[in-house]
């Protein structure tokens, strides 16, 4: 078992949605400091001012996780000022909800850079110090989209497949080498934060409540779990996909459950997608 007590927690994309909720809950569970990295300067100030007024130690950094040089520079500064980062939540992400032919090369690159490479940049910057310090957690907020194909989010799904494959492989490397760092891969379906505004929730896969899923994520960290898939149908996805022929799976996912129609009504909230 692990604990948030006296831990230094860093969350990317931590000024809104589940990122903000996880940060608030980590502090309420005894975290020593919360470090927020985000691209929204105004929101960071508002969030940090609010949390500091409640007696918490909160620090912010204006960072785009897709900027490798910027991440390395900020990580060096963070480790110098705070000594360590115990728990890294790779939460920053963007949604590209459109058909592949509608994407510009810029939107393809940005989606992959933020949702896939950004996680790797962050881990690369902080993992060596975690290993040296003898403790660390890296929590990668991926998606159920990293487990199944879905029309209307081709590039987003591709970025999340990459995130899942990398995150679970990293966890195995940590275990194989006996390193004291736990890697948790989080694969939720649509979360009701507005980021996926307008989506049609598939059958048996209702929109996840942000409060409940963040509780489960923090609990999974405390229990040193390797992966978290929610809701229950997402847990079954790899099994169903593995035993069914491709056409049969597509019928089940597309016609019966409705996953393949879920993005038909997607609107988003503007700032989260490109």
Key words describing this protein structure:
alpha/beta; Rossmann fold; 7-stranded parallel beta sheet; 7 strands; 47% helix; 14% strand
Describe, in plain words, how this protein is organized in 3D.
By secondary structure, the chain is an alpha/beta fold. It has one domain (8-261): NAD(P)-binding Rossmann-like Domain (Rossmann fold), CATH 3.40.50. Helix content is 47%, strand content 14%. It has 8 helices and 7 strands; from the N terminus they run E-H-E-H-E-H-E-H-E-H-E-H-E-H-H. The protein has helices spanning 17-28, 41-53, 68-82, 105-133, 154-177, 210-222, 232-243, 246-257; strands at 8-12, 33-38, 58-62, 87-90, 136-141, 181-188, 227-230. A 7-stranded parallel beta sheet has the order 3-2-1-4-5-6-7, sandwiched between helices. The longest helix has 29 residues, at 105-133.
